[in-house]
Amino acid sequence: MSRILTSSALSLVLLSILATPAISTDNATQGMPLLGDRFPDITVQTTAGTMDLPDAYAGKWFILFSHPGDFTPVCTTEFVAFAKRHEQFRENNTELIGLSIDQVQAHMKWVEWINDTLKTNITFPIIADGTGRVAKQLGMIHPAKGSNTVRAVFIIDPSGTIRTILYYPQEVGRNMDEILRTVRALQVADQNRVAMPANWPNNELIADGVIIPPPTNETTKATRVTGNNMTCFDWWLCYKEVPY
User: Fold this and answer.
1) Domains (ranges, CATH) in the chain?
2) What is the pLDDT of residue 49?
3) Which residues participate in catalysis according to the annotation?
C-alpha cells in the first residue's frame, strides 16, 4: 500500500484542523498539576469510548502522553515505538493513553493508517481533546511553543498520584525505553523504600544496586557500616541489592 496519504485521509486531517477551535493560551498553565498531586478527575472521549480518569486505571499505573497533532512525522514514530513496547508496559502493570487536540475521527484514521501502512497495531486509546480543555488543565499548552500540545508525559501510580512529569519540545521525540525504565524504577523504589541511582540498573558505581536513604540522626549514622546486605562508601552513601 502506498505510504502517501490518500485523498480521504487528507480530507479528514484538514477537516479536523478546521473543526478544532483556536485555543486561548491565557492562563493555560494555571493550576497545572505537580508531582505528588492526585491526577485530576477528568471525563474524556477516546478512540475506545468515554473514560473517567484516573479511575479507569484504578489499581494500575498508567502513562498519559500528549502529541502536537495527528499525521505528523515525529508523533507517528512515537506511536509505533509505544505500540511495540505496549506489552512490556503491561508486564509492569502499566497502561498507555495518548492525547492531542485533534478530533476522534482524525485519531481513528491515523491509527488505521499506522496499522495498514506501518504494520503496527495501536492497542491503546487516544484522547480527543478538540477544545484543548484537558491539555490546558494538565499544563500541556506552553504559549511560547504555540497553541499545540507539547510532548508531555505523565506517569501516574495505582492510587492516582502523579509520580513523574516529562516535557519534550516538538523537535525531539521521546525515548520510550527511558519512560519504561522510569516506571520500573518507581515500582522498585516503592516496594523497597529506596532510591534509584543514575542510569539504574546500569549505574557506573553500583551497577543494579539501589540507594538506601541516608540516616536522619546520629544513632542511625553510627550504625552505618558495610554488612547485612549493605555496602557503604560512607555513612551517607550506602546501597544494597534488591530483586527487580
Assistant:
1) 7-191 (3.40.30.10), 194-244 (3.30.1020.10)
2) 96
3) 75
